[in-house]
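Running this now, will post back.
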Amino acid sequence: MAEPLNILFLCTGNSARSILAEALMNRLGEGRFRAFSGGSIPKGEVNPHAFQLTRALGFEDSEFRSKPWEEFAEPGAPRLDFVITVCDDAAGEVCPIWPGQPITAHWGIPDPAAATGTEAEIAVAFREAARLLRNRIELLLALPVAKLDHLSLQAEVREIGRNADSQPA
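Update: finished.
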């Protein structure tokens, strides 16, 4: 079997959305994809509500940490096949130069860490972010990645970010 494709999910704080995307892809794409996450201004800790969802996927808290995206542009970092921003702020920032010309896309997701209200209301915001990410990840996993050329794959992955929520759940 071929090596799994490496995918990096980025957001500003790397405490919620990108962590959820990393966990979901590592679970749903297990064997086909290896996911990582990073942030432009990492908070330094994972949001406790994100941990609730990663635990439900069977992960240990110690498998996730809030880290700078620069780690993935350094010598010795995994070669990236995909880089996907999941927050609008990170999409507008100047990213490091990623070696190897990975496929890039923006899949904007509302920030569940910004949710206010009761614990139950905040938990709903996190579940909704996870649902949106799952939809996009499942669409990516359904693509015939090995059969598409670089430009076609780039277009398909970007289209997922633009139209995923209009697809039936």
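The first strand starts at residue 5 and ends at 11. More later if anyone needs it.
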